[in-house]
Amino acid sequence: MTARQSYLALLIAFGLVSGFDVPVGCAAQRPKAYIAKLIPLNANTTHSHARGRLRLTISRGVLTIELNAWGLPPGMMHMIHLHGFPNGKAASCPTAAADTNHDGIIDVTEIKAAAGITLVPLDRDPAALDIAGGAYPVASESGHVAYRQSVSLAHLDREMAARFRGASLDLDKRVVFIHSILGEHLLPETVASMADFPAQATIPIACGKIVPAR
Ligand SMILES: [Cu+2]
After folding, report:
1. What is the whole-number distance in angstroms between the Cα of residue 84 and the centre of ligand 1?
2. Are the beta carbons of 121 and 80 closer than 8 angstroms?
3. pLDDT, tens digit, for every residue of 177-190?
4. DSSP letter (8 states) at residue 123
5. Distance in Å, CA 59 to ligand 1 centroid
6. Cα 24 to ligand 1 centroid, rounded to whole Å
7. 201 CA distance to ligand 1 centroid (A)?
8. Could you report the per-residue pLDDT of 45-97, keeping only the tens digit for each?
9. Is-contact 197 64, C-beta < 8 A?
10. How distant is the alpha carbon of residue 17 from its chain centre?
11. What is the set of domains in the chain, with CATH numbers?
């Protein structure tokens, strides 16, 4: 035992400090948690009934992202993101009214008015913000995704501020989307997409609003 360790042991023995734990009642250190319940979007068209639960936990500077989702088109990669407004306006999941071109499908460009832009990818390295090229989860043959990643909150905040004009994570102002249906699924030509992706890759199939966990 070093001199420092034996000094600490002495203090603990005399009840002067409570070991190495964070003091009870220190609000800044208490884990913060947020959840989102994802419900199907565009289910009539995609014939998928994707549902899920997202849990976001912040503890000691680390954000842990956990998503379980079911009913997804099976055996394929699904783009999954946190969306929101960089200016801090609260995002919400789109309603049927978001289908502004009335083709019966709320496409990825039509979700922007309610939900803002793509911010954080739920891929293998969320803080890299590689929205177009990230390694996203692949649904099992039964259409299930179980996703879990931990990232440094400071790192993610830094990357977000640099990419999105000073935006921060602001979890209770964000929504989560699951995208993507099978490539052979036919969609009307009116369904818009982003970048060079076919509309089948970007079509949203589930959405959930992030709220503080109770
Ligand atoms: Cu998205």
Report:
1. 10
2. yes
3. 999 999 989 999 99
4. S
5. 25
6. 39
7. 10
8. 888 899 999 999 999 999 999 999 999 999 999 999 999 999 989 999 999 99
9. no
10. 39
11. 1-29 (no CATH), 31-212 (2.60.40.200)
